[in-house]
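Priority: medium. Attachment 1 of 2:
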């Protein structure tokens, strides 16, 4: 009796079976090589979307494939569970952030189970649970001990919508990464991590990551933004020759300086303007600038605005007077917060000088003789290379050489030195929000800032609080306002800021190796066994943020002797987006396809098959109903195929004996499929072409004649089901049973192909007469040069071509052609 393919039934059944037999538990077997397969953990927003389905389908095919290929595989899952949406939900629905979060986790976990992902839930981590954030706090203290966590007052990025500060990495084109509001600035005392100490290593070690996409490495490189140049000191006669230092990448243009610009917030500015007529205007300008974000101030579209301070500096080499200005386009925290203005050779300076009618003095004569010095600075600056002019002793020197020569000269006379600047800023890690890991610091009335001793962790987050969306409830929490100083026992207040959630996610992949450790974040033994992550899969949106922070964390913990690798992710796969009708799925566009509905209608296997088949993982994937239906039909087709041949296995299948033509052909296809699918899944991650190959095999099986060898057929069917196991794990289990097996298909050893089986018996070669292609011949494969030559010249077809002419020479290339030279 024909059995129907009913995904809902078999999927439930097998998920239950896997759970019952603990089949996704990490098997610790050190006789096998290890493989750590990790997908970025989700934020428990409420429900999984198609993007999640994609990333977890990709991770799962890899994890399942590696298990069958003889690896001990770590494939864990958890929740990036702190963050603002929980507080917003609390305001909106009145739910406690904790309750809301845990309920979401329960729901989404069940969604992941319906997709059939083989994750080891016994290692689950939730960043919001006290056992986890205790260790996040432990690590904060470690950073503090190492001098890598510090508190300072600074103008920081502020998102008015989120009511919190943001790290530089979280300001994307002037907007908040989370809510897209325009970011402003605020003067606050905040905690920072000294990531800039690691700038050079974070940059250089990108070269040791060949398994990362070039694009991501370039983005990190640009973000770190290393610039080599010089610091040059000018003096200010009216302030007793006090020094003001500028950072320049172009010391070769020093003689072209016609003014200097300080960042409005530069500490010297108040002294420069004191008592001058400019004072009031400049002070007002400073106040205005403090509020604008760096991005707004320096964007190329933004108009350059500045004011003269009324003060002058003395040029270090010429002694000339240089007027000192303040302007929006100079930032306090890059370089030295001061620049020398060279309008003849710099775009920004040119624009500024034109606007305020400042002198423009060319000091580089272009190598390109069609550009005249007289033209420089009339309509545009000259930013190319050339020879120095109007530059004293350096006249005539190529400017690339002058960069070094002038730097060295300044160094000798004590007025400058070679300097490297980075765009990367220290990581601002405190947040004025409730739903995060409390920063484990107290402020004692008499001892000042005191770290909480590690044995007093965790600093618990009170859960019975009122969230009004305006104010962090910790700032009025009794437990935070009144505590005792761990050092003197006197009255102290706790820090009420919590940590940036990106700290939680900077080390979760380490915790998975030792998730239940209650003493320390993880043991060295466990972490060293599993690290590095062999394949990390996630979205390109984290190219800088999460990935840079995680690299930084790993390097710090490497320096602390806690891990043996200083890069966490050996290989990185950034998956493309899931689109619908060419657009990103979004509620506002009304084009969201619900994973639950799809799984209910077609089953998880169809959803997985479609996702993996529709596009290679890095590319965007367009969700189409016809595509999903096609995948569903294919699974039905395989189902019927196996069912038609169930009898074949009733009494145990025979061994393959491919002697007839059809059997030979099928046998070759089967081995080819093994080879192709193995390489596509295991090496290239081109799951789509692996699936096309499986489809080809199915077509061959349908066309297989009833009289052809049965053993060959049985082998092909078994192989088919095994190859499908990582892709469509539920139906593969069911089909495996239909083929007469009692164990799980996922426990099978991944097949290897027989290179001999791929060799064809006969091949086609080309026959040429005097170098011209004249005919084709079928010959036995593997003939030697001589055998091939003899076979062809004695063949009827060749004889006809040669006619009565004389054979002068025969050139035979086995496997390809035979050229007969006649005359
Ligand atoms: C003089 C000069 C002449 C410059 C010239 C460039 C071209 P990158 O390459 O991005 O590191 N600069 C330095 N500090 C600055 C700050 N805090 N805010 C805004 N601009 C600043 O840029 C380095 C160049 O940016 C420096 O070299 C300086 O201008 C400017 F033909 O000095 B340059
Ligand atoms: Zn925001």
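Attachment 2 of 2:
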């Amino acid at each position: 009796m024909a059995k129907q393919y009913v995904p809902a039934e078999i999927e439930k059944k097998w998920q239950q079976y896997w759970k019952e037999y603990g089949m996704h538990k990490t098997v610790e077997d050190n006789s096998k090589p290890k493989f750590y397969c990790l997908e970025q953990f989700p934020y428990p927003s409420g429900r999984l979307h198609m993007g999640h389905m994609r990333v977890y389908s990709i991770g799962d095919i890899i994890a399942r494939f590696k298990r069958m290929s003889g690896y001990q595989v770590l494939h864990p899952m958890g929740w990036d569970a702190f963050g603002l949406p929980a507080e917003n939900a609390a305001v909106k629905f009145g739910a406690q952030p904790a309750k809301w979060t845990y309920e979401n986790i329960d729901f989404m976990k069940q969604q992941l189970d319906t997709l059939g992902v083989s994750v080891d839930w016994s290692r689950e981590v939730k960043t919001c649970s006290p056992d986890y954030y205790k260790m996040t706090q432990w690590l904060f203290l470690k950073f503090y001990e190492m001098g890598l966590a510090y508190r300072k007052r600074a103008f920081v990025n502020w998102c008015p919508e989120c009511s919190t500060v943001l790290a530089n990495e979280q300001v994307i084109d002037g907007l908040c990464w989370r809510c897209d509001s325009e970011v402003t600035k605020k003067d606050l005392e905040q905690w920072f991590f000294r990531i800039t100490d690691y700038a050079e290593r974070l940059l250089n070690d990108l070269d040791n990551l060949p398994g990362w996409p070039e694009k991501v490495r370039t983005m990190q490189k640009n973000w770190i933004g290393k610039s080599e140049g010089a610091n040059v000191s000018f003096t200010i006669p009216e302030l007793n020759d006090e020094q003001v230092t500028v950072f320049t990448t172009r010391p070769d243009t020093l003689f072209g300086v016609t003014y200097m610009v300080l960042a409005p917030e530069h500490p010297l500015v108040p002294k420069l303007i004191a008592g001058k007529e400019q004072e009031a205007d400049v002070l007002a300008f400073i106040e205005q600038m403090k509020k604008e974000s760096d991005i707004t101030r320096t964007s190329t579209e933004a108009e350059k605005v500045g004011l003269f301070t009324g003060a002058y500096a003395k040029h270090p080499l010429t002694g000339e007077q240089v007027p000192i200005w303040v302007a929006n386009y100079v930032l306090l925290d890059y370089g030295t917060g001061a620049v020398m203005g060279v309008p003849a050779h710099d775009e920004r300076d040119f624009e500024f000088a034109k606007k305020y009618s400042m002198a423009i003095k060319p000091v580089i004569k272009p190598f390109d003789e069609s550009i005249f010095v007289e033209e420089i600075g009339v309509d545009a600056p000259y930013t190319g290379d050339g020879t120095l002019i109007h530059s004293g002793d350096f006249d005539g020197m190529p400017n690339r050489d002058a960069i070094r020569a002038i730097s060295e000269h300044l160094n000798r006379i004590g007025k400058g030195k070679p300097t490297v600047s980075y765009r990367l800023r220290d990581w601002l890690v405190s947040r004025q929000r409730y739903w995060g890991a409390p920063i484990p610091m107290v402020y004692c009335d008499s001892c000042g800032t005191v770290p909480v001793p590690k044995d007093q962790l965790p600093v618990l987050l009170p859960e019975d609080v009122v969230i009004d969306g305006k104010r962090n409830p910790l700032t009025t929490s009794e437990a935070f306002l009144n505590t005792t100083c761990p050092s003197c026992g006197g009255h102290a207040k706790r820090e009420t800021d919590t940590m940036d959630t990106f700290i939680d996610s900077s080390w979760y992949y380490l915790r998975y190796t030792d998730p239940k450790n209650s003493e320390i974040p993880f043991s060295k033994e466990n972490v060293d066994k599993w690290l590095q992550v062999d394949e990390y899969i996630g979205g390109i949106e984290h190219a800088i943020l999460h990935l840079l922070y995680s690299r930084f964390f790993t390097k710090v913990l490497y320096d602390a002797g806690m891990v043996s690798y200083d890069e966490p992710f050996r290989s990185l796969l950034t998956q493309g987006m899931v689109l619908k009708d060419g657009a990103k799925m979004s509620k506002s566009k009304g084009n969201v396809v619900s994973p639950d509905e799809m799984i209910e209608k077609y089953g998880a296997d169809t959803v997985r098959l479609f996702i993996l088949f529709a596009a290679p993982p890095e590319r965007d994937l367009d969700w189409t109903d016809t595509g999903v239906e096609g995948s569903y039909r294919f699974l039905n087709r395989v189902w019927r195929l196996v069912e038609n041949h169930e009898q074949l296995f009733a009494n145990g299948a025979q061994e393959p004996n491919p002697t007839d033509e059809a059997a030979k052909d099928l046998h070759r296809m089967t081995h080819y499929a093994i080879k192709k699918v193995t390489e596509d899944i295991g090496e290239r991650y081109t799951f789509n072409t692996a699936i096309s190959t499986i489809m080809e095999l199915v077509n061959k099986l349908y066309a297989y004649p009833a009289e052809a060898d049965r053993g060959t057929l049985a082998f092909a069917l078994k192989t088919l089901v095994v190859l499908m196991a990582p892709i469509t794990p539920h139906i593969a289990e069911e089909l495996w049973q239909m083929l007469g097996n009692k164990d799980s298909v996922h426990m099978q050893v991944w097949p290897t192909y027989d290179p001999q089986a791929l060799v064809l018996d006969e091949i086609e070669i080309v026959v040429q007469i005097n170098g011209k292609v004249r005919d084709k011949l079928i010959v036995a494969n593997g003939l030697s040069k001589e055998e091939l030559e003899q076979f062809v010249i004695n063949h009827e077809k060749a004889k006809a071509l040669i006619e009565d002419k004389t054979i002068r020479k025969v050139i035979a290339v086995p496997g390809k052609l035979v050229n007969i030279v006649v005359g």
